[in-house]
């Protein structure tokens, strides 16, 4: 059925989203992800979808909100400063319980920062951003192929839980070219039409209303408890991790996305030198694979968190392992991407020669 | 004689028959009633999705029997765009106050108008932020006292009021732009006729439409309902002239 094609990441991810059933895309230009909206603008009309260039990221996410209320598969993408502008809308979408997908090609910050690869929006993505008690499912692919595959899961999870699903990548994944295979094509006509959507009554015996406003305190608390129950279910069932060379590992690197891909080379180099190093790579960063990490308590003598940020991922590793496993940290900022040797040097500096 | 009786006035079917939260003498109720009548008369109840604002009309979805969504402050035109694009056959309107549309949401309405897609905006101009207690709005008149212009709106400090229909009428996108007043029976009848044109501009697929409704806010104006109607006629209409500012070919 499918064959491998050589594609640029930002375009392959767009095609992955379309194969996953996305038919509506709203976005605003920002580097380093412009190839995604550009691809959507020419490709979506071919599959009966619509692309809209919005006047701002604020408008993009609210257009997504509108389309999500209609029960269609819809997404936007942006990069760090633009994602910051979308936080209000993400909170409203979460508070209304409608599904959508948001991709963030993270770049160096804070502020305008630069357009180089970074992971400095981790805490915004997994812990905060907008106002109120809400969570998103956050998927962190480490390659173009994984990103394409995860887009199918992203839309399925969004629909299943009526949540915002974020896909976080960086300019490195977006700008490089790799062979990619589109294994799944979702038939949008076969997707179940939700009964909650505001699509016009068309004979329905009641009006559907979508709102995040609940002035009565007891009503809003009850809704929050429903959301919390849903998040607990997601946390219990949807966390994912790749465990690489962990069977006999005495030490582990914890890293996700681009940083994890580079750290794999570090693991191979270390093992060639006789250091029993493995890699724990969260694929979902919310829910964080806490239990999967805790499995190695007692086995590993140390864990080094590596990230393109300053102690953001480290917070979750610390919550999972603190006091049970000696922890180290190595991170770079401003769009600087360390190589495998720099990671190994950091490991040896903090944990000795692994013996 | 019974067979000669006929219904000449009734509650619109698209009206949910609830007591509204609006203050006595406020014209939101009049605007709501006109929308409900038009949705009935134009047989739109099955196709309608309303997008409600942040402001006094934030609970608008409680009062109608058609589908509704509640937007973030100022973002109703963007949300309406997202809804309309998923099903262009539906009838989508936003209902927004002056702070919502002409301050925090100015970008969204200008670009919705510039895109020219057939959605309809009902814009309630009562010259202040009613829900939050009567602060200055972009439409507050010069000299008008509000809770944030206690000495009256001064242009050196607060700038000048915005005439939104006149601004949007400069664009090529809109099909129909008008300003009406809800101060009197004759103007309410005219308001309904202009709203009908705005609805038709969408139904006929001609383009974006907007009707600004000069409205009262007796509570924050600290006037009686009757005095509020008189203020519209004497002061508000002097700055905000009634009329049609753009009528594209085919708008009926």
Strand/helix succession of chain B: HEEHEHHEEEHHEHEHHE
Order of helices and strands of chain A: EHEHEHEHHEHEHEHEEHEEHEEHEHEH
At CATH's second level, what is the architecture of chain B?
Answer: 3-Layer(aba) Sandwich
The coarse silhouette of chain A is: globular
Largest sheet of chain B: 7 strands, mixed
**CATH class wording of the largest domain in chain A:** Alpha Beta
The percent of residues in helical segments of chain B reads: 25-40%
Distance between the termini of chain B: 38 Å
| CATH architecture descriptor of the largest domain in chain A | 3-Layer(aba) Sandwich
CATH third-tier fold name of the largest domain in chain A: Rossmann fold
CATH superfamily of the largest domain in chain A: Thiamin diphosphate (ThDP)-binding fold, Pyr/PP domains
Which parts of chain B are unreliable, with pLDDT below 50 for 5 consecutive residues or more?
none
Count of DSSP E strands of chain A? 15
- What structural category do the secondary elements of chain A indicate? alpha/beta
Count of all domains of chain B? 1
